[in-house]
Design brief:
Blueprint (H helix, E strand, L loop, with lengths): L1 E5 L3 H7 L4 E4 L7 E7 L5 H11 L16 E12 L11 E15 L6 E3 L8
Length: about 120
């Protein structure tokens, strides 16, 4: 199954916080369900920036130390890839439009750039 590595706390926001777009600089032809991989790296600055976006939208993040990193945290449907979006979460050049997030038990694994394959036996959504 395809996966996309996303830095925390943005990965958590997709699965639990109502973030309905993933901001990227590129489009994709991929459509359908993919696994959300929480990247290993996360700085306090990234966490604070996400808090400033999430807070006014009524979303409270878990504490910095509580966010799982370096593995699969859920899955979501990719339904479109747009040049712009009206979503309050949109702040990039391109918007990957997401629907129906589902949390999954944390499964440690290495991430990669772009979409990458995860063996089915490792994670079955």
């Amino acid at each position: 199954m395809k996966a996309l590595s996303i830095r925390q706390p943005w990965a958590w926001l997709i699965i639990h916080g109502g973030k309905d777009v993933e901001n990227r600089t590129w489009h994709t032809k991929h459509r359908g369900r993919f696994l959300v991989h929480a990247a290993q790296g996360m700085t306090r600055g990234e966490y604070n920036s996400a808090s400033w976006v999430a807070g006014p939208l009524g979303v409270n993040l878990p504490r910095f130390e509580e966010l799982q990193r370096g593995g699969i945290v859920g899955s979501v449907d990719l339904v479109d890839s747009l040049n712009t979006s009206e979503s309050p979460w949109y702040m990039g050049e391109k918007a990957l439009v997401l629907r129906d997030p589902e949390p999954l038990p944390f499964t440690p694994c290495k991430g990669q750039l772009g979409f990458f394959e995860i063996p089915d036996e490792l994670v079955t959504p």
